[in-house]
Task: inverse folding
């Protein structure tokens, strides 16, 4: 089933994917166990004339066992998830590369710092729906929205973050492979929700420098 | 009146109360059984509407922007010669979900079966407050009419998703829907009143009016589940009411609770909605679990495995359901530490569910299983709940949810649990139809219905996992607009064809239901040889239910008890003194 | 109505359960005694209790929202908004709390069989409740005059929503009280039979008890 996962091009994507795989194996095993037992019971104990069902109200030992085992599995899963979650959300690596994305019906406004080198000032340089970043650099994205909630989703990076009007949330990623990746909006935002999409362009160092020279530097004068 | 009944002449039932006219028997009835039937018809009618809306959603997803057959008469701007525009698409799934949750599953599982079964199963004559009960149905029906009327107002019905996230829902300009969204809010406010009346009635009846000998731990699990559900409803819906009132004020009075430009907080809506919303999903599933427990035991001819654990796990689920709401908001920009806390509680809530699944298996073990159509549907529910529950574990893990949030993985998850409830719903219809209407439904047709529904249900919803893994967003109008989704489009077509067949698979049910109402085989009093009290009442039960006030001597699941030679032992059947002690 | 509880009808007494013990999976305890289930209180009383539970959750929702805004704001109340009349509302609080005292006096009177006093006490309660509403109404008129409206700020919206829903409840309770008053006048309540009065007292107590919480939160906090 998991072969449908989009190609992973981020530094942390494999951590998400491996949790995904782990849960997949656990749940698949549980599913098979329960389903096989169910089918076996249905066949073995199908109605036969003259047979009487076993008169039993339960078995405390068994019940304790099948309470504790899933509980233990789930607790372990929680702790594994907490580690990854903290890495993604709390231990944000520092970065000298930040952009601002403001979502609006139905576009992504992408801002790069202007000549003053700071975001959130008058001279920021704006692009429509196109995000350009260098490869192997930690990118910080300051996300907000100006009307309704949108969600900035890059499947290949395993990155998703809602853009909420009235507040700014910072997310980060580090792309590991140059290329052009789709950037859909994942939160219902009105009739144009479907089709609200942009592109993430991941460049290698030279290409990025070239792009910046053409598009940022020229405007910075 | 009670004296006459206790006096015990079977005759009394006919003689001692005046005949009510047509209106008071069928329309403004205060008899819990008639109100139950009314809720059933309301729910089944809405199921057809909600299902047809889903069919339109599916059509658009498989063959985007092609005319839907047969719908060319719908005027612009709602449809363009049968082609669904994006705005209408949003309205379709919003109304699909709202109708299915609030006007199909709740009216049938809680409204119909709560009403019909609680007094019968605990051995009493009616609900504590029959008038309130009647009002609860009619207020609910008005809510339904308001909801449906929103299809006919300018701007169309609500289109902000069933979750109605602010700010999208808080300002008409954002969706272009004015009156429709207001009617959506008003309808749910009115429905809140209906279910408030219902739940007060259920709780009072269960606490105060159980038959002699019917202790709490002799109540059938169906009654337990409805009891717990009623408590959840009582306490959860008012929070939604508060949120809806604030949303309505934002839309009509100019407040700005959820609009940041006036100092409001969009995330507050999500917190309030899900504080209600998560208990709500258990409100939907608990009665299904209760019914399933009863049916598995009855048709395995075996006591339920771990009765107390079953009752306590429902209570545990109810408690935990108050503290997991944040798992819908992992990606919303909420504090990540809160995310961690909500992940923990969400994982914990899977444990009582695990207990239920394993105890169901334990019930089957060693049984003498009769695969009747109600039993098949109950097993279908278990199988679907298993899949839906297990897929819940993926999204409970916060890092994994980053990727699958708002994709079809979620859609797959909740259809397996929520639409899986439809299996328990059908099981209940097949099982209690004889008691409700005095006739049997056709078994062969029931089995055909089950086989087709089970097959196409899985073919429809299982592949949605694949879409979700591929990153396919939910609530999108046209998946072919995305390059990365193009390889998955074949799955969309496959799902739609399965969904249409799933819809058609309901035709045998409709035929069976309507035909059996009038021409089914006359049902005897206890056609399934079941233990619970409703089966010792006449079929269909008269006004006042029992000829003689039943006395309860034992739990509801004494199947294959060594004390008697039949393999069932009704709760109200006295045994010779001393024999009542169970050898064990 | 099937009000007289079923439980009291058929009565087959049996010896008390010998050592009841709760077993997981152990089915039911041995030697089932057939005891009638005594209702834990009258249906009307229980139902009112449930209803108040639901009401409490409704206000808990609104209060939760209030606290979210209160905690999230550095300056509260927001600048350029009229101040709330803390003093006069304090007096009003005393009036309302006193109405609970007279209401309970009515309940005590009926229990003591002093029926004449009951309607007197109900009348006093109603007057106190009415005065409370009038002072509230006057306050609102003043505040609107000074520019505090539902749309002037979230502060205003919260004020009118919370206080308004409470006022609506007081008004509802007044109407109920009027009906109970008429019943009391026509001699419907006796020492033994006064459920109608009792549940009205419960509701009134709830509405009154809610007020100091709202006063503390909205006016003082
Ligand atoms: C009846 C309805 C129902 C039920 C019962 C559940 C049950 C569960 N749900 Fe689901 N859920 C919904 C209805 C329901 N849900 C709906 C409607 C939505 C979407 C709303 C929307 O956005 O529109 C949703 C969304 C949803 C989300 C948000 C996803 C997102 O938007 O990103 C999450 C996240 O944690 C979640 C988790 C769970 C979990 C952990 C359970 C658990 O309770 C499941 C527990 C059961 C089992 C696990 C199976 C049995 C157990 C065993 C056999 C034991 C062994 C198992 C292990 C060791 C793993 N659900
Ligand atoms: C109880 C709840 C419930 C039920 C039963 C269903 C049942 C179905 N749902 Fe539903 N669905 C939801 C709750 C439910 N759903 C929710 C909460 C959402 C989220 C909405 C949101 O995002 O806001 C959703 C969203 C949703 C989507 C996602 C839309 C999107 O995100 O863009 C899809 C897409 O396939 C879908 C499909 C279906 C299908 C095919 C069925 C089928 O099972 C229906 C089958 C039934 C019938 C078809 C009716 C009876 C049959 C007849 C009367 C015979 C005649 C039929 C024909 C001629 C075809 N649903
Ligand atoms: Cu923007 Cu969806
Ligand atoms: Cu949930």
Result:
């Amino acid at each position: 089933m998991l072969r449908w996962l989009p190609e992973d091009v981020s530094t942390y994507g494999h951590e998400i994917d491996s949790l995904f795989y782990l849960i997949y194996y656990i749940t698949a095993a549980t599913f098979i166990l329960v389903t096989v037992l169910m089918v076996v019971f249905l066949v073995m104990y199908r109605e036969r004339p003259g047979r009487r069902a076993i008169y039993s109200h339960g078995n405390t030992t068994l019940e304790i066992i099948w309470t504790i085992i899933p509980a233990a599995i789930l607790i372990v899963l929680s702790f594994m998830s907490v580690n990854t979650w903290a890495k993604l959300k709390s231990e944000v690596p520092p970065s000298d590369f930040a952009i601002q994305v403001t979502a609006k019906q139905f576009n992504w406004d992408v801002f790069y710092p202007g000549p003053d080198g700071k975001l959130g000032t008058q001279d920021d340089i704006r692009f429509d729906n196109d995000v350009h970043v260098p490869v192997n650099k930690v990118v910080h994205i300051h996300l907000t929205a100006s009307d309704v909630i949108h969600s900035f989703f890059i499947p290949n990076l395993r990155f998703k973050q809602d853009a909420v009007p009235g507040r700014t949330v910072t997310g980060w990623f580090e792309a590991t492979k140059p290329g052009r990746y789709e950037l859909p909006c994942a939160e219902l935002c009105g009739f144009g929700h479907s089709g609200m999409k942009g592109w993430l362009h991941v460049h290698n160092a030279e290409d990025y420098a070239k792009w910046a020279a053409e598009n940022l530097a020229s405007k910075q004068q | 009146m009670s004296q006459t009944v206790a006096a015990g002449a079977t005759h009394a039932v006919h003689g001692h109360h005046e005949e009510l006219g047509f209106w008071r028997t069928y329309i403004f009835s205060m008899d819990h059984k008639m109100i139950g039937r009314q809720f059933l018809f309301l729910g089944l009618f809405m199921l057809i509407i909600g299902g047809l809306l889903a069919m339109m959603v599916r059509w658009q997803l498989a063959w985007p922007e092609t005319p839907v057959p047969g719908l060319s008469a719908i005027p612009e701007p709602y449809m363009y010669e049968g082609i669904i525009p994006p705005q209408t698409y949003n309205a379709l799934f919003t109304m699909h979900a709202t109708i299915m949750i609030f006007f199909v599953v709740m009216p049938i599982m809680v409204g119909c079966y709560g009403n019909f079964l609680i007094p019968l199963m605990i051995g009493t004559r009616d609900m504590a407050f029959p008038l309130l009960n009647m009002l609860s149905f009619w207020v609910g029906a008005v809510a339904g009419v308001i909801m449906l009327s929103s299809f006919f107002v300018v701007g169309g019905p609500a289109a902000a998703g069933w979750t109605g996230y602010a700010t999208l829902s808080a300002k008409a300009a954002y969706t272009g829907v004015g009156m429709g969204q207001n009617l959506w809010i008003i309808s749910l406010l009115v429905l809140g009143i209906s279910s408030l009346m219902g739940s007060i009635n259920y709780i009072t009846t269960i606490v105060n009016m159980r038959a002699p000998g019917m202790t709490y731990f002799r109540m059938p699990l169906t009654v337990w589940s409805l009891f717990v559900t009623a408590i959840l409803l009582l306490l959860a819906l008012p929070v939604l009411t508060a949120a809806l009132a604030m949303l309505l004020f934002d839309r009509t009075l100019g407040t700005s609770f959820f609009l940041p430009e006036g100092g409001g907080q969009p995330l507050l809506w999500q917190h309030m909605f899900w504080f209600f919303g998560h208990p709500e999903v258990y409100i939907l599933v608990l009665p299904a679990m209760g019914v399933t427990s009863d049916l598995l035991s009855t048709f395995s001819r075996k006591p339920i495995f771990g009765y107390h654990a079953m009752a306590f796990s429902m209570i545990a689920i109810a408690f935990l359901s108050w503290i997991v709401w944040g798992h819908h908001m992992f990606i919303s920009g909420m504090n990540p530490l809160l995310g961690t806390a909500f992940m923990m509680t969400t994982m914990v809530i899977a444990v009582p569910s695990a207990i239920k699944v394993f105890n169901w298996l334990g019930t089957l073990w060693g049984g003498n299983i009769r695969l009747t159509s109600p039993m098949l549907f109950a097993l279908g529910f278990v199988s679907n709940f298993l899949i839906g529950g297990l897929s819940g574990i993926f999204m409970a893990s916060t890092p994994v949810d980053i990727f699958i949030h708002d994709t079809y993985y979620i859609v797959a998850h909740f259809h397996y649990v929520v639409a899986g409830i439809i299996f328990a719903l059908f099981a209940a219809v097949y099982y209690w139809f004889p008691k409700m209407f005095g006739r049997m439904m056709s078994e062969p047709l029931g089995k055909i219905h089950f086989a087709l529904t089970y097959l196409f249900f899985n073919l429809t919803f299982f592949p949605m996992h694949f879409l979700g893994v591929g990153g396919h967003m939910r609530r999108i109008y046209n998946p072919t607009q995305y390059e990365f989704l193009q390889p998955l489009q074949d799955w969309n077509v496959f799902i739609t064809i399965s969904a249409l067949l799933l819809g058609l698979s309901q035709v045998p049910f409709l035929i069976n239901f309507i035909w059996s109402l009038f021409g089914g085989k006359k049902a005897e009093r206890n056609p399934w040889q079941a233990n619970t009290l409703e089966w010792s009442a006449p079929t269909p039960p008269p006004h006042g239910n029992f000829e003689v006030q039943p006395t309860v001597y034992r739990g509801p699941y004494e199947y294959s008890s060594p004390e008697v030679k039949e393999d069932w032992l009704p709760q109200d059947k006295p045994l010779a003194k001393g024999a009542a002690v169970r050898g064990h | 109505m099937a009000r007289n509880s079923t439980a009291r009808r058929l009565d087959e007494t049996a010896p008390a359960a010998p050592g009841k013990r709760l077993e997981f999976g152990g089915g039911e305890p041995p030697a089932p005694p057939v005891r009638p289930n005594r209702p834990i209180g009258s249906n009307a009383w229980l139902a009112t209790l449930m209803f108040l539970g639901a009401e409490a959750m409704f206000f808990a929702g609104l209060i939760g929202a209030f606290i979210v805004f209160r905690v999230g704001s550095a300056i509260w109340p927001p600048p350029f908004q009229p101040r709330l009349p803390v003093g006069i509302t304090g007096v009003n609080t005393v009036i309302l709390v006193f109405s609970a005292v007279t209401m309970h006096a009515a309940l005590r009177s009926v229990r003591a069989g002093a029926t004449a006093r009951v309607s007197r006490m109900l009348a006093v309660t109603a007057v106190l409740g009415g005065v409370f509403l009038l002072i509230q109404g006057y306050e609102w008129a003043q505040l609107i005059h000074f520019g505090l409206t539902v749309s002037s700020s979230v502060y205003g919206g919260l004020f009118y929503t919370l206080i308004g829903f409470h006022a609506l409840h007081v008004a509802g309770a007044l109407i109920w009280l009027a009906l109970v008053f008429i019943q009391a006048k026509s001699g419907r309540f006796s020492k033994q039979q006064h459920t109608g009065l009792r549940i009205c007292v419960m509701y009134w107590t709830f509405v009154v008890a809610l007020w100091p919480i709202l006063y503390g939160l909205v006016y003082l906090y």
